[in-house]
Write a structure and sequence with these properties.
Distance between the termini: 42 Å
């Protein structure tokens, strides 16, 4: 089997919705969108990326708008003020149109390079969870958010 045939055989028959939300993530959101789109296009032809700006006061919204113009798979929603992750999840749910839903934080807690491995198990498992071991992208985060990530990982 040639490389092109192998790539086609590994593509998922499912459609995917990726959820994410951010508050003041101007330093990370562009890279997140590029990596998310690349990973999803590698496993499916049918996907969407749903991003919520949860009341950012920096340039997060403007950056999301610019990328949404470049990437037709990106849907963006803006909360007028910070409504916290629970409300962000409900906002994403209202805009979801695909079969399989997963979420990732803008600082990419989950390593997108692992997505094909996880997608290959969708016929076997109802829930698949992945975490990022590398904490490099937490450079821009406060001490509280870094500690929160470490605690969540160990839980």
């Amino acid at each position: 089997m040639g490389k092109a045939e192998l790539h086609k055989a590994q593509r998922s028959l499912y459609s995917f919705s990726l959820w994410s939300w951010g508050l003041n993530e101007e330093k990370l959101v562009g890279e997140f969108i590029k990596k998310a789109d690349s990973a999803l296009s590698g496993i499916s032809d049918d996907y969407e990326i749903i991003l919520v700006d949860d009341g950012s006061t920096d340039r997060t919204w403007e950056i999301m708008q610019a990328y949404a113009e470049k990437y037709p798979t990106v849907k963006i929603i803006r909360h007028p003020r910070n409504l916290q992750p629970g409300r962000c999840m409900h906002t994403c749910l209202r805009h979801t149109t695909k079969d399989i839903v997963f979420w990732n934080t803008v600082d990419m807690f989950f390593d997108f390079s692992k997505l094909p491995d996880f997608a290959s198990h969708l016929d076997t498992y109802d829930v698949i969870q992945g975490v990022r071991i590398d904490r490099e992208s937490n450079t821009y985060k406060s001490f509280y958010r870094k500690m929160n990530s470490v605690i969540n990982y160990h839980l």
